[in-house]
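User: Hello! I'm new to structural biology and keep hearing that structure can be predicted from sequence alone. Could you demonstrate with N-carbamoylputrescine amidase? Please show me the input and the output so I can see what each looks like.

Assistant: Of course. The first part below is the input, the amino acid sequence of N-carbamoylputrescine amidase. The second part is the output, the predicted structure written as tokens.
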Amino acid sequence: MPGKTLTVGLVQHRCTADAEANLARSISGIEEAARAGAELVLLQELHRTPYFCQREQASAFDLAEPIPGPTTDQLADAAKRHDCVVVASVFERRSAGLYHNTAVVLERDGSIAGRYRKMHIPDDPGYYEKYYFTPGDLGFTPIDTSVGRLGVLVCWDQWFPEAARLMALAGAELLLYPTAIGWAQEDDTQEQARQRDAWITIQRAHAVANGLPVLVCNRHGFEPDPEAPDQGALFWGSSFIAGPQGEILAEGAVDADQTVVVTLDRSRSEAVRRAWPYLRDRRIDHYGDLCRLYRD
């Protein structure tokens, strides 16, 4: 049974063209977090490679792999060696021509506890994910583990309150977001500040609205556009952990490899939900229009 506290870790790092070096950074971060007492470790989105979705390139499909596969095998070994649950992001090759952006949950014994396939898929300049990823088909279903029931979502999902709420309604005890987000070079400093603040605010709001801790892990560093190396994305790091009232418990740097570790008090969610009973006061009999794309 999970204890009264849970120590969690985030592994934030730069990604280069060397996939094995990137994976080694992730595994080293798992070890560092476990040494600090982490029982649950979250890795960043697509942590083994540069963020290849800046362009549409058929050759990038070669980066995909099955689950289980080479990446999950190595991470399973790390989870078992360090006695912690690991949440990792994988470019999943489900079949020829069918690929997903998938978060895999690895148990302490190295077994696969479950997976979540990214549901919301962006298609925007620098984030051409619809070319690569089929939308998830597993729904918003938490994954049961030895450290609790995890509501795992991925990156673009983090902007949608519906996804967080559905995970909470299914009994998730924490919300976890592996992510890859940053600034375009044409953004001025004011626009950069607005974007990063909005990103932090929306996820803190999910914590508040659902009375749950939120874990967010993002990469950092400049990654060049494959077709225009002098252009690209500057990922803003800033991985953070928020408590069930949205309070920031720990935050990573904008521009550094960092392992962030915090101990959560599991009783806080119960106490917060008793004081702010949003789930009790929902008017589900009047929310039918939420199932419409737009109210014309």
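User: So the tokens describe the shape?

Assistant: Right, they're a compact way of writing down the 3D structure. Reading them back into a model, for example: The two ends are 49 Å apart (CA to CA).
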